[in-house]
TrEMBL record:
<keyword id="KW-0106">Calcium</keyword>
<dbReference type="GO" id="GO:0033018">
    <property type="term" value="C:sarcoplasmic reticulum lumen"/>
</dbReference>
<comment type="similarity">
    <text>Belongs to the CREC family.</text>
</comment>
<dbReference type="InterPro" id="IPR018247">
    <property type="entry name" value="EF_Hand_1_Ca_BS"/>
</dbReference>
<keyword id="KW-0256">Endoplasmic reticulum</keyword>
<feature type="domain" description="EF-hand">
    <location>
        <begin position="68"/>
        <end position="103"/>
    </location>
</feature>
<dbReference type="InterPro" id="IPR011992">
    <property type="entry name" value="EF-hand-dom_pair"/>
</dbReference>
<dbReference type="Pfam" id="PF13202">
    <property type="entry name" value="EF-hand_5"/>
</dbReference>
<keyword id="KW-0472">Membrane</keyword>
<dbReference type="GO" id="GO:0005509">
    <property type="term" value="F:calcium ion binding"/>
</dbReference>
<dbReference type="GO" id="GO:0005576">
    <property type="term" value="C:extracellular region"/>
</dbReference>
<keyword id="KW-0333">Golgi apparatus</keyword>
<keyword id="KW-0964">Secreted</keyword>
<dbReference type="GO" id="GO:0005789">
    <property type="term" value="C:endoplasmic reticulum membrane"/>
</dbReference>
<keyword id="KW-0732">Signal</keyword>
<dbReference type="InterPro" id="IPR002048">
    <property type="entry name" value="EF_hand_dom"/>
</dbReference>
<keyword id="KW-0479">Metal-binding</keyword>
Amino acid sequence: MLFPRLLLCLLAWALCGSGKPTERKERVVREAPLSAREHDDAQSFDYDHDAFLGAEEAKSFDQLTPEESKERLGKIVGKIDEDGDGFVTVEELKAWIKFAQKRWIYEDVERQWKGHDLNEDGLVSWEEYKNATYGYIL
């Protein structure tokens, strides 16, 4: 009598144990990455440039000579140094990176809005949205 119960318990345990989901769900909500580029400083500093300058500004820096780039970065460092002590703290750098990313987002939203506002009245109607998004003819 004890053996069938033990066998039944082992079978139930095995079935329950194998029914666990194998996919692990992430509980932590992560912020969007600072750049679409891979972060590998051994290969290049493109990720850091995007994070520091914003994607659009980083593209313009790619076209500059090293001297021009150094001069423009010097001007930017002056903007980052909020307390004007001649040094950039970690907090000032974090604030700058957040500012650069938000600026890029707002500029992207503005471009998107202009692309949807076909009659340029400052409003996006459902018809304009459908046309810009799905290609319907007004």
